[in-house]
Structures are given as structure tokens and as C-alpha cells.
Amino acid sequence: PGTLYVVATPIGNLGDITQRALDVLAGVDRVCAEDTRTSKRLLTHFGLQKRLVALHDHNERDKLDQLTEWLQSGESLALISDAGTPLISDPGYHLVQHLRELSIPVVPIPGACAIIAALSVAGLPTDRFVFEGFLPAKSAARKQAFQKATQQTCTQVYYESSHRIVASLRDLSEVIEADRRVVLSRELTKMFEQSFSGTASEVLKWLESEPNHQKGEFVVMVQGAFPTEASQGMALEPLLKLLMAELS
Ligand code: SAM
Questions:
Q1: DSSP 3-state assignment of 218?
Q2: From the CB of 29, is ligand 1 less than 6 Å away?
Q3: Does the C-beta of 207 come closer than 6 Å to ligand 1?
Q4: Atom of ligand 1 nearest to the CA of 161
Q5: How many angstroms separate the CA atoms of 34 and 86, rounded?
Q6: Is the C-beta atom of 56 inside 6 A of ligand 1?
Q7: Model pTM?
Q8: pLDDT tens-digit profile of 159-206?
Q9: b/e string for 67-80 if b means 16 or more Cβ within 10 A?
Q10: Which of 40, 49, 46, 4 shows the shortest CA–CA distance to 22?
Q11: Ligand 1 pocket member 34 (CB < 6 A)
């Protein structure tokens, strides 16, 4: 069979496309794209004219048979999304899972991803982090999601849209400790790229201070929970026993 290449595209700055992505896109028989108009513009920019197949959340399952047939007949395909790495809060999961079951080769062509770009400049620990995806749209559900996620001791990462960024930060500031560090990255790799770091209420104030700060695409990162008394206690107990034994 042919191969499905899962190709990362830029998250803003077109200079972030990789040479390998261009070579693979030039070589495949068809390109599966989330939004064919957006992808056509991207491909045209790089002088590529390809057969495009729409593959989005609403038709992904219906397209499986057709895509599998093409691959089994020896065609090679590329999967791209509107921006960044496919499958990361973007379509493609059902296709990749299906092809893996059939042992059809699936090969990554890595590149830009907003989570990784944001973490690399946040100044928060990155040895362990959890990606929580998009936050719920309604405030009550969002607060609940924050309450649960922010208990984790590793750095937490969320995607958020401009419509809800202020409301989300307000909810976050009500849920976490006042001294937890929050970093907001907006418009990464684009003209008005900014990353702002502070407490949740400082970040909220920064957003509210200037309407332009609320525009664009956002990654929200939250410092991991401080170790709780319970977990400290667990570590301290054996130590205390040792000390007591020394003293007696
Ligand atoms: N697959 C993409 C990736 O690899 O990052 C993510 C796609 S998801 C549908 C879109 C969300 O990613 C946006 O709402 C925003 O939270 C985040 N995002 C994408 N591009 C971004 C950028 N240039 N700056 C900040 N966040 C971005």
C-alpha cells in the first residue's frame, strides 16, 4: 500500500514550513485537508497544485473507506490541518487509528505545534506537562474543568479562542491560588505575537487593559499545583521516624 503522511504546517508564519513537508506535499497523490480553501491558499503559496480531499470532524468516518482504497491501491496521501500538527485538537484521529489497524504505513512529518511553541518560551517547568485541549464553552463547566486540572502538579496547557479568553481567565482566577503563575501566549509566530506571564488576576488585568490583547489565538499555561500537605506529609513521615529513632 501507499503511505499516509501526517504533515505539520505553520501556525502563522509561513517560514515555519519544513523542507521535508514541502517535499512530501509535492510528492503525494492527494492532500487531505480540514478546510480545502485554506489549504489551497497554503499550497498555492508554495507553488504546489494538488488534488485536495476535504477531511473534517463531520465527514472523517464516512471518508475512511475511500481513503483506505486509495492507499491500498498504492497512492500516497498527506493529511494536513488548517494550522500546526494534525490530530492535535484537529481532525485525523479516526483515520490514523483505522489505518494502523490495517497495518497501512502512517508517517509523521513534524513541525509547528502551538502547545510546544508556547511551552518553549513560557518559563514554566516542561519536564512534565498535561495538555487539556479546549476548555468548555460554559462558565460552570469550565470552572469545574479548571478545578480538576489545576490539582495536577505538572504544568497544564489549554487552547482557547479569542471569544472566551477573558471569561476563561476570570474563571481561572476564581479557582486557583492567588500566587500560581499563569502564562498566556497569543498569535505565536505572527505579527502581534505576545506572551504575558503573571498571576491569574494579573493576566486578566493585562487582557482587559487593551482590547487588542484579546484578539487572536491563545495558549493558556498554568503552573502545576504546589505539593499538598498530604503529599508532603507522606514524604516527611519516614524522615520523622528516623529522627525520632536517633533522638531516643
Ligand atoms: N493543530 C494545531 C496545533 O498544532 O497547535 C492546533 C489546532 S486548534 C483547532 C487551534 C487552537 O490552537 C487555537 O484556538 C489556539 O488555541 C491554538 N493556536 C493555534 N495557532 C496558534 C498561534 N499562532 N498562537 C497561539 N495559539 C495558537
A1: strand
A2: no
A3: no
A4: 14
A5: 9
A6: no
A7: 0.92
A8: 999 999 999 999 999 999 999 999 999 999 999 999 999 999 999 999
A9: bbebbeeebbbbbb
A10: 46
A11: no
